What we know:
Blueprint: H1 2-7, H2 14-25, E1 30-31, H3 32-39, H4 46-58, E2 62-66, E3 72-76, E4 91-94, E5 100-102, H5 122-128, E6 138-141
Parallel strand pairs: 4-6
Antiparallel strand pairs: 1-3, 2-3, 4-5
Helix pairs in contact: 3-4
Bound molecules: zinc ion (ZN) (2 copies).
One zinc ion binds at residues 28-29, 75, 89, 91, 102.
Amino acid sequence: MKARIRDSGLRCTAARLAVMDHLGSAAGPRTHAEVSEALADLGFDRATIYRNLTELTEKKIVSRVELGDHVWRFEIKRTGGHGAAGEDHPHFLCTTCGEISCLDDVRVAITPKPRRRTTASAGRGARATRIHSVTEVLLKGRCDSCG
Ligand SMILES: [Zn+2]
Ligand SMILES: [Zn+2]
């Protein structure tokens, strides 16, 4: 963790390291509130945590995801793996306990449905095959502990 912080050009402060360690041990992305709560015992206040999360996001060591509830969640950016930066993995939301976890071993492909073209609307058909750029995929169901 220390090396990753230093490699990004940031100083390795106690707060930054605590934030990184917490995100690194989490099973999924964490909200600012969750990180603050977890690190409150160590004496870091919410503003400090927020500033560190923002700095780490700007340095691209941490990525920020929004999973449809208008709450930013933070997670350590994956290195290697598939995709250009390896960070585009789907997330799983347990609808019973609300836990969100990363699905690192799952790949979801969004493929457009083939469109039948008629000669009259060939132009429009071509436009319809444009794929939206998908930034976040969230799967919902029940986690192992909820059965
Ligand atoms: Zn659950
Ligand atoms: Zn994730």
